[in-house]
Design a protein that fits this description.
By secondary structure, the chain is α/β, with parallel strands linked by helices. It has two domains: 21-50 and 311-474, Aspartate Aminotransferase, domain 1; 58-308, Type I PLP-dependent aspartate aminotransferase-like (Major domain) (Aspartate Aminotransferase, domain 2). Helix content is 41%, strand content 13%. It has helices at residues 21-30, 58-65, 75-88, 99-110, 124-132, 160-170, 194-206, 218-228, 237-246, 272-285, 296-308, 312-331, 349-352, 362-374, 383-386, 414-429, 462-477, and strands at 45-46, 92-96, 116-119, 136-139, 178-181, 211-214, 250-254, 265-269, 344-348, 376-377, 379-381, 388-389, 395-396, 402-406, 437-441, 452-455. The longest helix has 20 residues, at 312-331. It is globular and about 60 Å long. 48% of the residues are buried. It binds ligand F0G.
Length: 478
């Protein structure tokens, strides 16, 4: 098979700024060992997120000039609505400034105290918006999905037996919505099979419960279905996406991912009454129904991005280029979430730094080391992001401790990724020296964004003394 190449060429470049290790050590300390608090000018390769970091195409940039900035009834909205309806089939399309605004509107209407909302795995903002409404956000991942070392085609799905049990226990009236996140971001960017989407939809509907998709990465998920699920190899990816949406009653979407733009989102649904309520909340909190907190030109760019993202040469390159990084790391024995996901490679911090207890945040330690080593910014997806405390103040850890290396769309070249692989391997080789961290300050919600950390400096372990003995012994054997 021929090399899968970038299906684009580069017209405009953005200069990178190099720093020294000494500078990065100081900058990281000033940022309280939380790379969210770094200035992006001090970051060389930014793998913090694939969200809103896309390089837009020439067509998208030129469409911005054609935006119709009318407050109401903008031509740009109707273009956007048409494209969203074509892909999703949903009757009502409500634009928002990003994905979490769609979540907030939806859960302020269907959430509330006593309600339970299941998902394969809730993203952090989805969980926060549900909990903010007073409802409970419950994760029901496929049991394989929380075992990073296991290779399977569709680890991102929902445990359908657990869903049946939860609905039975909670009673359908208390479950206002069942959700599936495609791909499963918190679960390692793993895809959800069409079969699982169909099953979850069937179960929800059999209890009269609406079913929504969190569709941020719907196109990557559709491409995985084409590549891996029986019967879909010859089906155009757009048709696969349309089938995915056909089982749902609505969706939330952050177009900052598979919309191939720098901002935006939408809430879409078929229910007339719910849509009317949602539009009323939108007008109060985001803006009029034909712009929802966005400049109208943004809607132009989204309309084009949603078409470009379904180009199969783009999706083949996209999935292959992420896998390329995963393969390079696995070849050096670095433990990662297997197989590689659609938008990111996730390091398995528990196996990467087994000497750091979960209560000292091994993922955050790796994140810091990667920045110091090579100026690479990544994010912990583990107990910093999802940890909670019990009534005694002890940490209730996340099921997995991961470090996400999210690949922005159409931004970095193969040599950037080679550099990343080299840096991760260097940190891995020196992993025994990674220190644990304690939290010095944390806000009450979404703590990973702004927490401050301190490194736990332990006395040099005896192991290192043995290490020098080991050299002597080796010499002796020689
Ligand atoms: N749902 C999923 C699955 C997401 O990954 C995100 C954002 C959102 C909802 C919220 O969208 O940021 O536009 O408000 N994920 C980003 C990330 C932030 O880094 O994975 P938003």
């Amino acid at each position: 098979m021929k090399t899968i190449i970038e299906p684009f060429k580069i017209k405009m470049v953005e200069q990178l700024r190099f720093t020294t290790r000494e500078e990065r050590e100081e900058l990281l300390q000033l940022a309280h060992y939380n790379p969210f608090l770094l200035h992006s000018d001090d970051v060389l390769i930014d793998l913090l997120t694939d969200s809103g970091t896309t390089a837009m195409s020439a067509k998208q940039w030129s469409a911005l000039m054609d935006g119709d900035e009318a407050y109401a009834g903008s031509r740009s909205y109707y273009k956007f609505e048409k494209v969203v309806q074509d892909i999703t089939g949903f009757k009502h399309v409500i634009p928002t400034h990003q994905g979490r605004a769609a979540e907030r509107i939806l859960f302020s209407l269907v959430g509330g105290v006593g309600k339970i909302i299941p998902n394969n795995t809730h993203f952090d903002t989805t969980r926060a918006n549900i909990e903010d409404s007073g409802a409970a956000a419950v994760d029901l991942p496929d049991p394989l999905g929380i075992r990073p070392e296991v290779i399977a085609d569709f680890k991102g799905g929902m445990d359908v037996d657990a869903l049946e049990a939860l609905i039975f226990q909670a009673r359908p009236a208390n479950v206002p919505l069942v959700m599936l996140t495609v791909t499963n971001n918190t679960g390692g960017g793993q895809p959800v099979s069409m079969r699982n989407i169909r099953e979850v939809s069937r179960i929800a509907h059999s209890h009269g419960i609406p079913f929504f998709l969190d569709a941020c990465r719907f196109a990557e998920n559709a491409m995985f279905i084409k590549l891996r699920e029986k019967g879909y190899a010859d089906v155009p990816v757009k048709k696969i996406a349309q089938e995915m949406f056909s089982y749902a009653d609505g969706c939330t979407m952050s177009t900052k991912k598979d919309g191939l733009v720098n901002t935006g989102g939408f809430l879409a649904m078929n229910d007339d009454a719910l849509a009317m309520k949602a539009r009323n909340v939108l007008i109060v909190t985001e803006g009029f129904t034909t712009y929802g907190g966005l400049a109208r030109r943004d809607l132009e760019a989204i309309a084009i991005g949603l078409v470009e993202v379904l180009d199969e040469s783009y999706l083949a390159y996209r999935l292959r280029s992420v896998q390329y990084l995963g393969d390079a790391l696995e070849a050096q024995g670095v433990p990662i979430m297997r197989p590689t996901g659609g938008h990111a490679v996730y390091l398995d911090a528990k196996r990467f730094a087994p000497h750091i207890p979960v209560s000292e945040y091994p993922g955050q330690s790796i994140v810091c080391a990667l920045y110091e080593q090579a100026g690479i910014r990544s994010v912990e997806v583990g107990s910093v992001m999802f940890g909670k405390y019990d009534s005694n103040g002890s940490l209730l850890p996340s099921p997995m401790e991961l470090v996400r290396l999210a690949i922005p769309r159409r931004v970095y070249t193969q040599s950037h990724i080679d550099y990343v692989a080299e840096a991760v391997c260097e940190v891995y080789v020196d992993r025994d020296h990674l220190p644990g961290l304690r939290i010095a300050y944390e806000p009450p919600v979404l703590r990973h964004f702004t927490s401050h950390f301190e490194r736990i400096c332990k006395p040099v372990p005896a192991l290192h003394v043995v290490g020098s003995n080991r050299v002597a012994m080796t010499n002796g054997v020689r």
